[in-house]
Amino acid sequence: MKNKPATRKEEKTGNRNLFLIVLLIIIAGSIYYLNSQKAAVSETDIENIADAKTETNVKAPQSYVKDEQAVKQKEARFEYAPELTGIEGYINTDNMLTIGSLKGKVVLVDFWTYTCINCIRTLPYLKVWHDKYADDGLVIIGVHTPEFEFEKKYENVKEAAEKYGLKYAIVQDNDYLTWRAYKNRFWPHKYLIDIDGFIRYDHIGEGKYEETEKVIQALLKERMERLGKGKLKEDMAKPSDIIDVDFGKVNTPEIYLGYGFTRGNFGNPEGLPAGQTVDYMFPAIVKPNNVYLEGRWKINKDDSELISDEGRIILGYDAKAVNIVAESEEGSEIEVLVDTKALDESKIGADVEIIDGKSMANIEEGKLYNLVDFEYGSGLLELRIRGKGFKINTFTFG
Q1: What are 48-58's pLDDT values in tens digits?
Q2: Which fold does the domain 68-227 belong to in CATH?
């Protein structure tokens, strides 16, 4: 059976449909072509610390001299540094600070938090590098990503910056947005960014200060060559206020006392049940490197909170220095003993004083408190706490 001849109206409708189909094919082809021209981005592991290329829209400063060939070579080997994201507070700088606006400078991004003992021990080097190289083009940005809730407060971070004498820029990354952009997982973690905005080096934790400084010098030399001026001092920094630690002699791990952070090393059989209030008692036998509580305590996500008027903590440790991260809004006092004895002046930490023959510490604002500091070895630490509302987040050692 033959097809029925089309009418003029049907011919016109068919032509319009054909035109629309051709137009859609052209649009789809254009989209595919444009997408095919975009650079492919791959995921890398934490050791390379790379993210998708995120060149900022912030206009590069006038002092930036771009070398097209050098940038092209770097694009094949390195990743652009992610931009600062979700920043809530600025210290020693204003809210115009961005990675993009610092092109032409060498940038050191340091992820830290002010109660982290590992971070605190790196600060003397950061301070010296800032003083030594700022005029040569180094910009340090301390990205403060909090571990505990009270570390989110701007006033607390500002006070810590003043306490440690930090003069370089600090930004508050309270929601971990910059942390995630850099795919970071550690405190402290340093990234070095060159004059073209590429991550050229990173280091996790303490140590490797000379290696890090040599990279800083190499990147600053690249900057000077690009600008055609400047001469760099090549000696190594020697901070006067460093805290030396022999990690081979520190045998007690960091111990967390909130249910959200616990990694074990808690000795009471009741454990740390989320959101519950527990009447703890010391067991007959205690194990080394385990924390034990006595008294009535509420187990919060970040900490263990003393509900009774008095409480005790014991811990068999093996280290030189013992610190706690703690706070008490109403104020609490701690008597510190090692092997059942009060500490003398040669053994007390920086936050302990001798009062009527007792080694005492007052706990108020949330921070790191240094309780014991004398020689490497093992001891039985006992904390006798008076004042409900005392909250302890963690024990750290050195």
Answers
A1: 323 333 333 34
A2: Glutaredoxin (3.40.30)
